Amino acid sequence: EVQLVESGGGLVQPGRSLRLSCAASGFTFDDCAMHWVRQAPGKGLEWVSGISWNSGSIVYADSVKGRFTISRDNAKNSLYLQMSSLRAEDTALYYCVKDIGIAVSVYYFDYWGQGTLVTVSS
Amino acid sequence: QSVLTQPPSASGTPGQRVTISCSGSSSNIGSNTVSWYQQLTGTAPKLLIYSNSQRPSGVPDRFSGSKSGTSASLAISGLQSEDEADYYCAAWDDSLNGGVFGGGTKLTVL
Asked: For the CA atoms of chain B, what is the radius of gyration?
């Protein structure tokens, strides 16, 4: 059974940093691109960042470029999102998402975690 | 303001057929394939359609997708109460070099 379990969310002050983690199991982790998608309370889905199977291709949404860093450790079956200079508008439920393909531009998400909530507030 | 445009709401009665549209541009839908997601209240989204019209295993054939030019559509036939959910279209955008979603359509089964 495929499982994606996010952790690391919480309440953080504006301007501070936070690191999200996603533990993957039930599939061959290094056979897939991975992404982070977020959803602000009561709002729609927003793609945040994607990383190819071998970390050779990394892309970000303009809204987080220069502030967020995605990475993966295939040996540990884990995906990460380092978030810095956090803003109130980054408040959202962050989903770890598995892609069907190995490249980020395949962009078909066949498995989603349950999400970890990040709240940016003073 | 989402890059992909969807109607905010749609509705139908049980057994009816409803369609949800998704409008984009040459840099996203016009040059890449489309996927659709269903999000039931309080749950994570679920992949319904990928590659414009392909259904993952387990998705009923009541759900179908199509694409023409820079627009795509999701059709749900034989509408059921459990289809009441938010639906999102998605595509890769070559100009942005990133992924985009539609704003979502809330489907109500009357």
From this structure: 13
